Amino acid sequence: QEQFVESGGDLVQPGGSLRLSCTASGIIFGNSYMAWYRQAPGKQREVIAIISSGGITNYVDSVNGRFTVSRDNSKNTVYLQMNSLKPDDTAVYYCNGHSSILTNGAPLFRSWGQGTQVTVSS
Questions:
Q1: Burial class of residue 36, CB neighbours in 10 A (0-12, 13-18, 19+)
Q2: 32: Cβ–Cβ under 8 A, 6 or more apart, which residues?
Q3: What helix, strand, coil percent values describe the chain, rounded to 5?
Q4: How far is 12 from 30, CA to CA, in rounded Å?
């Protein structure tokens, strides 16, 4: 059974930074595309950043240039460095596998972690 444990969320002021972590278990992490998703209040969950097993990355336009996804295959962990945060980034952030490097792909696994709350507010 796959499991994802996200951490690192917090309340931060606009313009601030945060680094999220997600540790996965029960999957062949090193072979999987991994992605960060977020769900804002009243909205559907959306993919925002994807990383291949070899470190190729892709981002949606709304975070491109501000967020950086990385991974440590030895630790089964994927990271999301978030800079220049905006109130619109307020959401619960999750990680999961992804079907490809493309943002129009789909989550790989049925299970989701509890997510980590990011709130951007002054």
A1: buried
A2: 53, 97, 98, 108
A3: 5, 45, 50
A4: 32
* Angle at CA of residue 49, ends 9 and 25, nearest 5°: 65
Q: Retrieve residue 72's tokens.
A: 């440590």
| Tens-digit pLDDT string for the chain (122 aa) | 999 999 999 999 999 999 999 999 999 998 999 999 999 999 999 999 999 999 999 999 999 999 999 999 999 999 999 999 999 999 999 999 999 999 999 999 999 999 999 999 99
Tokens of 100: 């490809």
